[in-house]
């Protein structure tokens, strides 16, 4: 299952259909072998064949503080295990449909109006959003459309203390025609909106494919970045010595900036023992 398929599966579940408890105090406790400089998370869709309860229990034991990319019906499971959802879904449109499409603004506003208060009630701080595919829109027009659609949503998010984070995705390999596919485009949108509660989800895998120069870009634009995702390049598999990125160096650079958000593993395990691969990824990033 890839991420698009996971999103389609989630769309069959009504968002926000259950009550949500507050985050457990045990979220602050870490295994003794975890340094604590990086707040670790993992994206659930990469482990979709593992029951969420099992993933949460195993993740907690290896030092995770969060499970990323859960919808509202799944947040209570993470919370039950003393975890949060550091980057949550707020609608079910997926990645290819987003704020650059003015015909979707009404639905997006409705969905976020319903789900942002629920996220706040669950103690969540970050909710994801997407530009959508360009579908012929110029870079400038897509940016203008995104800003127009985001402005009313961000006012609601600010009321509940939530940051909306637009993910940077590659349009070269995985997400053809996706509009927010370069850091500079996302930064222009941040600057145009001019609010503290709109930032970027910097996916290291995607941006290595599109533009490289990962550490320098992070250093230059860290004030606009709320969250990180990982993945091995090429192939999006384990982030070990089989791929071209030096994740310990990238993590040290992130820590040096003073970043206090989360780093979530979003590689697709190629090895049979997926939880062992996840543990390895956490260890590699735990500088």
Provide a compact summary of the structure.
With 287 residues, the protein is α/β, with parallel strands linked by helices. It has helices spanning 3-10, 52-62, 75-80, 105-121, 139-159, 183-193, 204-210, 214-221, 247-256, 274-285; strands at 39-43, 66-68, 126-129, 163-167, 198-203, 225-229, 262-265.
Can you walk me through this structure?
It is a single chain. The chain is of the alpha/beta class and 287 residues long. The protein has one domain: TIM Barrel (Alpha-Beta Barrel), CATH 3.20.20. The chain has helices at residues 3-10, 52-62, 75-80, 105-121, 139-159, 183-193, 204-210, 214-221, 247-256, 274-285; strands at residues 39-43, 66-68, 126-129, 163-167, 198-203, 225-229, 262-265. A seven-stranded parallel sheet has the order 2-1-7-6-5-4-3. Helix 2 (52-62) links the parallel strand 1 (39-43) and strand 2 (66-68). Helix 4 (105-121) runs parallel beside helix 5. The longest helix is centred in the middle third of the chain and has 21 residues, at 139-159.
Percent in helix: 25-40%
Strand content: 5-15%
- Spatial arrangement of strands, main beta sheet: 2-1-7-6-5-4-3
Structural class: alpha/beta
Q: Mean pLDDT, as a whole number?
A: 92
Note the gap between the termini. Answer: 31 Å
Sketch the major β-sheet.
7 strands, parallel
Q: Residue ranges: pLDDT <50 for 5 or more in a row?
A: 10-27
**CATH architecture assignment:** Alpha-Beta Barrel
CATH topology title: TIM Barrel
What is the approximate shape? Answer: globular
Overall strand count:
7
Number of domain modules: 1
CATH class: Alpha Beta
What is the CATH superfamily classification? Divalent-metal-dependent TIM barrel enzymes
Instruction: Write the element-wise H/E pattern from the N-terminal end onward.
Output: HEHEHHEHEHEHHEHEH
